[in-house]
Design goal:
This protein is of the alpha+beta class. It has two domains: about 1-35; about 40-175, no CATH class. It contains three helices and twelve strands; from the N terminus they run αββββαββββββαββ. Strands 1, 2, 6, 8, 11 and 12 form a six-stranded mixed sheet that branches. A four-stranded antiparallel sheet has the order 5-4-9-10, with no helix packed on it. The protein has a two-stranded antiparallel sheet with strand order 3-7. The chain is globular, with a radius of gyration of 23 Å. It starts with a helix and ends in a 6-residue tail after the last strand.
Length: about 180
């Protein structure tokens, strides 16, 4: 014969498992019901920059102009030049993007929820000293940025002199406003 205490404990354990399963489902469902941020709903702006010993580091702030959305990971980056007929397709310069590379750029991508008017940041660095056979470094007047998981691009006005064939080092998307200082 089973005791009422055993049934009570079994019932409490089953209830706890059910509550935990519902909590996981709710957490997963909230991310699934909130879309990834589209490029068209974000406004990008250079916050600041600083440089030393041939390395320039700058911060790009992304502000959400639309409904709540999320970002996670590394954006795609392209350097935009000054004239269409010299650089070729849409004025884009050769660009090579590396995830991390400096201590402040290294980090594991985390989910960043952006409410309307919420802000996130991406830190980017480049070397401005010619490498190998380079005699000069191409001048970029803007950065094309594609948010992780999005199909569109946005343009951020920022001047670059990325040597090493347009090599940029980047951080993952960071929650809030992060300075390059």
């Amino acid at each position: 014969m089973r005791s009422p205490t055993r049934f009570a404990l079994l019932g409490a354990a089953l209830a706890a498992v059910a509550v935990a399963a519902l909590a996981v489902q709710a957490a997963t469902g909230s991310q699934a019901s909130t879309p990834t941020c589209a490029a068209s709903q974000l406004k990008g702006k250079e916050l600041d920059s600083n440089g030393a010993a041939g390395t320039i580091l700058f911060s790009v702030t992304l502000q959400n102009k639309g409904a709540t959305c999320w970002l996670k990971g590394y954006p795609s980056l392209r350097i935009k030049g000054t004239s269409l007929w010299i650089e070729g397709s849409h004025g884009l310069l050769p660009t090579h993007v590396v995830h991390g590379g400096m201590s402040m750029l290294n980090g594991k991508p985390k989910l960043v929820n952006l409410k309307h008017s919420g802000k996130a940041s991406v830190l980017v660095s480049f070397e401005d000293v010619p490498v190998g056979s380079e005699t000069s470094c191409p001048t970029g007047k803007a950065l094309r940025l594609q948010p992780p998981g999005a199909s569109g691009w946005l343009t951020v006005k920022v001047e670059t002199f990325a040597c090493g064939h347009g090599t940029l080092h980047e951080s993952p998307v960071l929650a809030g406003v992060h300075s390059s200082q």
